[in-house]
Amino acid sequence: MPKSPIADPNEDYPRWYQDVIAKAGLAENGAVRGTMVIRPYGYAIWERIQAEVDRRIKAAGADNVYFPLFIPESYLHREAEHVEGFSPELAVVTIAGGKELTEPVVVRPTSETVFGEQMAKWVNSYRDLPLLLNQWANVVRWELRPRLFLRTSEFLWQEGHTVHASAADAAAYALRIHHDVYRDFLVETLALPVLLGRKTAEERFAGAINTMTCEGITRDRKALQLATSHELGQNFARAFDITYTDEGGEVQTAWTTSWGASTRLVGGLIMGHGDAGGLRLPPRIAPTQVAIVVVRDEDGAVEKARELGDAIAAAGFRVKVDADVHTGFGRRAVDWELKGVPLRIDLGPRDLAEGQVTLLRRDSGEKSQLPLAGVEHQVGDLLDDIQAAMLTEATAFRDAATTDVSTVEEALEAGREGVGRIEWAKLGAEGERALLADGVSVRCIQRADGTVPAAEDEPDLQAIVARAY
């Protein structure tokens, strides 16, 4: 079999990452620096991410909308902390239609401000609450150090924006999104055992009173922020006059939240599961769950492969038949490995003669033979086994990469090499600044049981520290 055409991740992880994206046909750099062209296979993964996340968002009661790409610059200035947090990343349009604009417009970096302006018009009474909205869109944040899927100047995402009658209701909904949408999707579909927690004041979203995060651990032992949920308090409600009349007839200022996840999830998928052979996709997210590869077109192998493909598809699985026998089997086997298809079924003249097929699991590389008759009925159990095994493996890797420490110096050392866990009371804001000076950050603060604390000053909290993408 031909040698894998990608770098060894143990020797050059950044090169490996770029090679996987290129050779698996996921994406390419766009014509403008920092932009990204998502190729069909990469977009197929994103479409499945969209579908899975969108289903969970709707189950949480939110409705989809669409807001304009252009935002009046004055909107951002109405929430001073927000615009200060985004100023270096903004793309601003000053000329349009051949004329200088009377007011510059910002290309959407996030939509709290434009949603706030509109939600103020839609909310009048307590009967209008909660107002739960989400949009799937593109955003622009001018990136100085781009990396495909992880940081690009334009990327795709969903962003939710909600209005509530009370601080407690807003906090509960933000936590619900964080756990029932993001955590559930990341663990159950992407098989990524993320760390849940609360961001420190240093890492909090601009304009928020609380930011919650889902942090993944990549195979080079760094942290990757995969989704965030924000309690915005009344900051944006005051700036955009989002008020409602309560049951007693009194006018009250509302409470708002926002939350989002982006095409960075594809990067997290690559870096959370990939190996020296390329991608490894959990079955629940894989665009193709089963690839049937014809070894040689002899003794009706192509016809039998298509019959098997139809049977597997009829059983409810996503399958492709590779009958490109003019390309060498070894080359095609490497290509399917690169693409991370969870289960490969090889079918050739010898298999037909013996009435069997050869199965190869992408997660473990394990090969086995099964009788050809009825193999479609065993695919489901195999895919379930692969999904569970990938989560187990990723969890074991995360745990092995995590070191419990008790001093700032030990936290710094652990964060340089992987993930450190230290009592937040022993680290504190001063220790956090010391870590930041050496490129290690507090990724989140969590309770000892791994759940999200309601406040930063809860007793017995743990800080998770690491280098981050």
Quick description:
With about 475 residues, the chain is of the alpha+beta class. About 35% of the residues lie in helices and about 25% in strands. A seven-stranded mixed sheet has the order 3-7-8-14-11-10-9, with helices on both faces.
Please give a structural write-up:
36% of the residues lie in helices and 27% in strands. The protein is of the alpha+beta class and 469 residues long. The protein has a seven-stranded mixed beta sheet, sandwiched between helices. Helix 2 crosses helix 6 (167-188).
Strand order of the largest sheet: 3-7-8-14-11-10-9
* Terminal CA distance: 34 Å
Major beta-sheet overview: 7 strands, mixed
Strand content: 25-35%
Q: Which class do the helix and strand fractions yield?
A: alpha+beta
Question: Helical content, roughly?
Answer: 25-40%
Dominant shape: globular
Fill in the keyword field for this structure.
23 strands; 7-stranded mixed beta sheet; 5-stranded mixed beta sheet; alpha+beta
Question: How are the SSEs placed, and which strands pair?
Answer:
Elements (H helix, E strand, L loop, with lengths): L12 H11 L3 E3 L6 E3 L1 H20 L3 E2 L5 E3 H5 L2 H7 L4 E6 L2 E9 L4 H11 L8 E10 L13 E11 L2 H22 L6 E4 L11 E8 L5 E9 L3 H5 L3 E3 L5 E3 L1 E8 L1 H10 L16 E5 L6 H14 L4 E4 L6 H11 L3 E5 L1 H6 L1 E6 L5 E5 L7 H23 E3 L3 H10 L1 E5 H13 L4 E6 L15 E5 L3
Parallel strand pairs: 3-7, 15-16, 15-17, 20-21
Antiparallel strand pairs: 1-2, 4-6, 5-6, 7-8, 8-14, 9-10, 10-11, 11-14, 12-13, 17-18, 18-19, 21-23, 22-23
